[in-house]
Amino acid sequence: MTYRELERLGDAELLRRTMSGKDEEFNWGWEILSARHREPLFGYIVSRVKSRADAEDVLQKTWIAAASNIGRYRFGQARFKTWLFGIARILILKLFEQRKAETGHCTRLEPDEEVPCDGQEAAFWQEVLDREIGKAVRMLPTRQKTILVLRYRGNRSFDRIAAILGRSKYWVYVEHSKAMARLRELVPNLAELRVRAAGRPVRLPY
Fold it and tell me: Do 9 and 96 have their domain in common?
């Protein structure tokens, strides 16, 4: 197809041609998609990060990630624009996490109506949750770390943990409660992270 013919296609059909066509059509397709979505995508990013330099960096990374992962796009499940903005949102979240690690300042990114939270974002928050809990657990006394590992990685009951450690069930309960209280102190946003990692509101066990 010619460049002009590709320009007349909708995003979905243009993507199909881009993914299955020749190198020339692939390059033309991405050029057309970029022309269609670059301005609104940049506006979305800069409205969240509040820095033009950061926004330009996220924009570039978004297009690179989209091109690299285009095989994961599922036709009919989401519009290309929604999928593209979802990639940008993940990269914004990663930027905020990087800034938090560097400065200690936490910037929130609230849910977007135009970019629904999906499994990809929930997976991102699960990574953050695992990392934060991992750091906190390493700061606990060995006895408490052992109980948490047996309980949540080994799926052991309190009775079984007591038998393994040669302690009373009451002692295990007490140390477990102390460990969980300390985790809540070390990870003050623990409950919020668990909700975000679940991708939906959940009833938290602690």
Answer: yes
